[in-house]
Each structure stands twice: as structure tokens, then as C-alpha cells.
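Quick sanity check, Cubilin:
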Amino acid sequence: MAIRDGTMAVLKYLFFVMAGLTCLECKKLTATDTSQTIETHGYSFGLQYSRFMYETWSIETLDSSAVVEVEIDMDIEPSLGCWYDSLQIFDGSNSGEDSLGTFCGTSSDNTVTSSGREMYVVFQSDGSLQMRGFKLIYKQVKQKYAIWMTVGIVLAVFTTILSVCLILFLCGVCKSKNEVSPISLNNAQHQQPVWMIPRPHNHLQVVPGQFVPPPTYQDVTYQNQQAMEMQDMNRRILQGTADIAMARASPDNIMVDSLPPSQYYEKT
């Protein structure tokens, strides 16, 4: 009896493997951002799965850059190596792809993620013992490298914009430094402006202005007309008078030290 059961199990396993290489009768599902559910008949109501079951599901993500993630809650006949009843998950479109795990027993904390956008699920049972089965919750998630790629693109754009702004700012600063503008020293009279002239490498050199001395005046003599008339009359200078007044002349004006009015003069 044991030999017969073993032979039947081997034949059943070979049939399942051969049938699983294609997805002619599998249920094709689409994973989205919203969680969806696969479960054996009556699992949520505590019913047992049927004998000699063989069911397959092909899950594909809606987003080509996403992967499939599943959470498994199961109550499947336990056995060494899950030889009798089992839930198998493959990383691809059929059972010929790499296995992501074979599950049996009772558990509710299993999470499996595909490497690409497709996942293939197989559930099989024999005729000896039936239990509740399984419930599988699946959805699509972003791949880690896709997330980092998005972050990298955002950082690259931000860095480019920042670099352009910095270059424009530096160009504006350089342009303003290269402009030549005159300045005047505080409290400085009779001098030319001082010009700020840029040297190579944007270093500034202060060129001192040419200081212009104040206008000079020529000392000239001027004899008061009244004094001259009185000298002609008396041939001498009256007391209290001055015969010579000093003046300072410039190209624009003559400043003369005047004498008192004539009524202040007396003959001696």
C-alpha cells in the first residue's frame, strides 16, 4: 500500500511538473497597487480543500517597472519536504523558472517577492489528508533599483539647476567687479578722481589721483589814488595814511586792501 502511494505521488508530481511548464489552463492575474486575494475554495469559512487538486496562477504586474509581492496565510498538510500537499511559487511565467519556495504546514507570516514582473503559483494535493488550504494576498511594488533610479534622476536635475544658478551668479559678480568706476577721497580738495582699475585675475589696483595744488597769487603793489594826490600837493605823506596797499591777484580776481575814506585824512 505504501509502495503504491509512493508511486502515485511520483507520477502525480511528474504530471504536475510537466503541466506546469506551460500556462494553458492557469488563471492569469494582474497585480496592481491594490491588494488582491487568491485562496482555495472555502478557506475563509474553514472548509477543507479537495483531494488531488492541481491549480496554477500566473501573476503579472500592471507596471512594467514593478515586481510581485505576496503574503501567504496557509494551513496545508505538513510533510518532509512538502512532498504530499504543497504551495509552490516560481520566479517567472511558469514552473520551469527559479523556485521562490515550496510551502506547507500552518503559517501566516510568509512574504515572497519576485525579481521581475511575473510570478507563477502552483497548489497541489494528494488523496490522503485535506486541510483548510491557503490564502495568498498579492500586489505590485516598486523595485528598489527603480526607486533609487528615480531618486538619482531627481538629484541630477536638482544639481543641474543649482549649478546653472551658481554659474549665473558668479558671472554677475565677475561682471560687476570688472566695471571701472571713479571714487573720491573724503575731505580732499583740488584733486582728480581716483579710478579703480582691475588687474588680471580680478585683483583691483588703486591708482592715486593727481593732486592739483591750489591756485597761487602774485603779490602786486597798488598805491592809493588819494595818497598819491596828497603827495603831489604836499610832497609828503600825511600822518595816518598808507601809501602802499598789498593785494593778491589771481587769474580770476584781484583782492585789494583798501584805505580809510578821505575824511579821515588830515594835513600836517
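Posting the structure with no commentary besides this: The helical segments are 2-20, 144-178, 225-234.
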